[in-house]
Specification:
With about 170 residues, the protein is an alpha/beta fold. The protein has one domain: NAD(P)-binding Rossmann-like Domain (Rossmann fold). The chain has helices at about 10-25, 40-45, 60-75, 95-125, 145-155, and strands at about 5, 25-30, 50-55, 80, 125-130, 165-170. The chain has a 6-stranded parallel beta sheet with strand order 3-2-1-4-5-6, with helices on both faces. Helix 4 packs parallel to helix 5 (about 145-155). The longest helix has 29 residues, at about 95-125. The protein is globular and about 45 Å long.
Length: about 170
């Protein structure tokens, strides 16, 4: 039985992975920026033995929440960096603030989470890191330039960590 820590569980891949892991007998620590927006989902996860933490991946409180997550079961075996968003528009129409927010959420947040949790995975000599990416990280299309850049950075960062004891998996976002 593995302990899963999943960011961005309010919908989509995050919610689906949380349900799948719980239904497979694993322990889950699910997170979302605003759990009060999905009370039924939070209750569902908690009723199956999971935990739910409020987490804005760009918040200065990130290390504190990650430490709390580690303290729940004493370890994290599977980290799923799923939280993110897509900013659509022509690059000349996107402000610096919007572009920085995109890169901060889709690249720096997963990097910071990995930096914080990787030492504990190395200490336990095992762990899996899953970075939810996008085909846009490999092939940019019109109107997704900044989003593509954020996912390309995530793609480029992922192989930079050694595979032993940590396995890096990239799941394309369809």
């Amino acid at each position: 039985m593995s302990v899963w820590f999943i960011t961005g569980c309010s919908s989509g891949f995050g919610a689906g992975l949380a349900r799948l892991a719980l239904n497979s007998g694993h322990k889950v620590i699910a997170t979302s920026r605003n759990p009060s927006k999905t009370p039924e989902l939070v209750r569902e996860v908690e009723s199956k033995g999971g935990n739910w933490l409020q987490l804005d991946v760009c918040s200065p409180q990130l290390p504190k929440v990650l430490d709390k997550a580690l303290s729940i079961h004493g370890k994290i075996d599977v980290l799923v960096n799923n939280a993110g968003f897509s900013l659509l528009g022509a690059v000349e129409d996107i402000s610096d603030a919007e572009a920085r927010s995109q890169i901060e959420t889709n690249f720096f947040a997963p990097l910071n989470i990995i930096r914080h949790l990787l030492p504990s995975m190395r200490k336990q000599r095992s762990g899996t890191i899953v970075n939810i990416s996008s085909t846009a990280g490999q092939v940019a299309l019109p109107a997704v330039g900044v989003y593509a850049a954020s996912k390309h950075a995530l793609e480029g960062k992922s192989p930079s960590f050694p595979s032993n004891p940590t396995v890096i998996c990239k799941i394309p976002h369809w």
